[in-house]
Design goal:
711 residues, mainly beta, Immunoglobulin-like, 4 domains, 7-stranded mixed β-sheet, 12% helix
């Protein structure tokens, strides 16, 4: 009996042991992490790591993609296929196509991985029952099925991320969009029976928490782009700088009185989340926004983001976004800064706010204006009116990087695009100057509709601004009514600055004669054609030589062309009465009724200087300094005076009335200018005679004058 009992006990023991051995694998698997896991946590406010790579986790080799840890897929693979998996990832990054490779996940189920063109992906994802889409382009492949996209989940950054297509047979297909400029997709097919439910449940639960805890605050606008011609499309970037979610309902953009509600997505914007709202045709990953007048992003003013009780204001640049061949986005105080030369200078969708100012960034206060040219330059005898420019001189003592600065002139705002750091005393040239292309201290800009009186300022990305020129030309005689900077032959004069004082640019010395070897031939030619400019050169310095000028001829009545009076032919002629000719004069026209018009104008280096309203009808080959508003009264008693613009010293004056000096015979259609002569008794004024010079139009035989020529 004892023997039978012992045998029975042993049988029970072995059966028990056998059962334990059979159940061990099941228990171990239940404690082991799954091969495929989806993770979603929009409430976590920290900045995620953007990843699509193989990593080691808990002793497994796993592929992780997404924003880790806020939004990611983790797929752990078996040890036998690691090298081949890594090869597929490398091929995707390099944009090369390789055949599918088959291996197993960590739980021994099969997977396939490969790289494909878009047409290959299209075939692979036909007929899914559910799709999680991280690339707008892939959404079009799943019409009629259940699709969740950016409107169903929140990401910290607004980039393309992975997409998952889940089929009725339990197969899932993970797609990574092309890497950078490539057109090759990564495809990863595997089995995970619970993945769909895991994704949907996780997103629903976390979105409900986000919606329950959101606050009716206002995000900030961080970047905009509004250029029509770019294939990126026009867009607005917003950012939640807080750690808490912001409620989406009620938020709207306001642009010049046009209010547009933000499209509803999950109902909240996560802490530290960046979003892009764009026109539907934009190629960026974005949320489509209709109702905005996108062209208004080029206007000067503000765009607002807010709700009923509060709003955030964002300054618009008031200009376009294309400079040369580079598209720039606008950050509110400055255009985006490029680390390298590229077609697009921007970072749309990226979750980052500029930190502390770089120690090498230039300070706007360390710059002064050296030269301003609002007229353009002569080139091969033709005035290039868009070759307007500014020269800035750097006065700082430390070497600095000017790429964070922007320049404003009138309504024009441009980023400084300089390819090197600058040192004390260096000149930065800004304008549309083809002959300076390639020079490291030149920044391309096209200044439109600028005048001498427009304000010029420089500022950095932090909003620090310095006014370089307030547009007011001050002289010892006061502020002139007009400043003359052009000649009828197209020659122009720049405005120079020395110690903050403005003056008309003196004649520059030919750099070739000075052996200034840094001048290339094209720039040398420009300098010779434009002797009263010095683009990209440190030149502006007032002459200290004693000089004085006086009137030499006055045509206060104009010309007769046959019987037709030509009032626009009125002119003034000046001549130096010292060995050195002044660079400029301050002219006052004092009418009999007390009205005074003052004009600051340049003088020629040698010979006579002439001022008129433009080309002369009767003396078409004579060149004048051009003041389109110039006129002289033809009745009443009038006085003309000229002064030294720096000291205010009176140099000369001329008084006249309708009776002369000069002749205005309206009955006989005769006009003679007044001409100054030096005789033994002193200086006298008399009516001039025409002695064959300069060329006079044959239709003007009764007009006697000789502008630019001695009688």
């Amino acid at each position: 009996m004892q023997t039978i009992l012992l045998v029975f006990v042993l049988i029970i023991f072995f059966i028990s042991a056998s059962c334990k051995q059979d159940t061990t694998p099941e228990l171990v698997w239940e404690d082991t992490e799954k091969s495929v896991q989806f993770q979603y946590d929009p409430i976590r406010a920290g900045d995620p790591i953007l990843i699509s790579d193989l990593v080691q986790e808990n002793g497994h080799t796993c592929f992780i993609s997404g924003e880790d840890p806020n939004f990611r897929i983790r797929i752990c693979i078996g040890s036998t296929g690691i090298a081949e998996f890594a090869q597929a990832l490398s091929a995707w990054r390099e944009g090369s196509l390789i055949p599918e490779f088959t291996s197993t996940l960590s739980a021994d189920s099969e997977y396939k991985i490969g790289t494909y063109p878009f047409s290959g992906i299209r075939k692979k994802v036909e007929g899914p029952k559910f799709s999680l889409i991280g690339d707008r382009k892939l959404k079009s492949l799943n019409a009629g099925t259940e699709v969740w996209d950016r409107s169903n989940f929140n990401l910290k950054n607004h980039f393309k991320t992975f997409s998952i297509f889940i089929f009725s047979n339990g197969t899932s297909f993970l797609v990574l969009s092309p890497f950078r400029e490539s057109e090759v997709y990564l495809g990863f097919s595997f089995r995970s029976s619970s993945l769909e439910q895991e994704i949907q449940n996780s997103i629903r639960v976390k979105n409900r928490i986000g919606l329950e805890n959101c606050i009716s605050s206002v995000p900030i606008i961080t970047e905009i782009f509004g250029e029509t011609n770019s294939n990126l499309g026009r867009w607005i970037e917003i950012y939640n700088p807080n750690t808490f979610p912001i409620c989406e309902g009620g938020l709207e953009f306001s642009l010049f009185g046009n209010n547009v509600l933000l499209p509803q997505t999950t109902g909240f914007i996560s802490g530290r989340e960046t979003r892009i709202y764009a026109e539907d045709s934009a190629s960026l990953e974005h949320i489509s926004l209709s109702g905005i007048k996108w062209g208004d992003l080029k206007k000067a003013g503000k765009i607002l983001l807010g709700r009923a009780d509060r709003s955030f204001e964002f300054n618009l640049p008031g200009t376009g976004y294309l400079f040369g061949e580079t598209y720039y986005s606008w950050k509110g105080n400055s255009f985006s800064i490029c680390e390298t030369i590229s077609k697009f200078c921007m970072d749309p969708g990226e979750n980052q706010i500029s930190g502390a100012e770089n120690k090498t960034d230039c300070d706007p206060n360390d710059f002064e204006l050296e030269e301003l040219n609002p007229s353009g330059l002569l080139h091969k005898g033709i005035l290039q009116e868009d070759w307007k420019y500014l020269d800035l001189i750097y006065k700082g003592r430390s070497i600095c990087d000017p790429s964070s600065l922007k320049i404003s002139w009138g309504k024009n705002v441009f980023p400084l695009r300089i390819n090197q750091k600058i040192s004390e005393g260096e000149i930065l040239s800004i304008g549309n100057l083809p002959f300076l292309l390639g020079k490291p201290s030149y920044s391309f800009s096209v200044f439109k509709s600028v005048t001498t009186n427009d304000l010029v300022s420089i500022s950095n990305s932090k909003g620090k601004e310095k006014v370089l020129w307030d547009g007011i030309f001050r002289t010892s005689k006061g502020i002139p009514t007009r400043i003359i900077l052009q000649k009828t032959n197209g020659e122009t004069v720049s405005v120079c600055f020395q110690n903050g004082q403005a003056f008309l640019h003196p004649y520059s010395v030919d750099p070739y004669l000075n052996n200034e070897s840094q001048f290339v031939f094209s720039q040398l030619t420009i300098t010779r054609e434009n002797p009263r400019t010095s683009v990209a050169r440190k030149f502006c310095q007032r002459s200290q030589l004693v000089s004085k000028a006086g009137f030499s001829e006055v045509s206060w009545m104009g010309s007769y062309q046959g019987a037709d009076p030509i009032s626009k032919d009125r002119f003034l002629e000046f001549v130096s009465i010292t060995e050195n000719s002044p660079e400029s004069i301050f002219l006052e026209i004092i009418q009999g009724n007390g009205t005074i018009v003052s004009i600051l104008l340049p003088l020629e280096k040698e010979g006579f200087s002439l001022l008129s309203s433009g080309k002369s009808t009767c003396f078409p080959q004579t060149e004048f300094w051009k003041d389109t508003s110039f006129s002289l009264p033809s009745s009443g008693s009038n006085i003309l005076k000229i002064y030294d613009p720096y000291t205010g010293e009176l140099w000369d004056e001329f008084a006249y009335s309708s009776s002369g000096p000069g002749v205005n015979d309206t009955r006989n259609k005769i006009r003679k200018s007044a001409y100054s002569k030096l005789e033994s008794a002193g200086r006298i004024w008399s009516a001039s005679s025409y002695l064959g010079k300069p060329y006079r139009d044959p239709s003007c035989p009764l007009t006697d004058a000789h502008p630019g020529i001695s009688e």
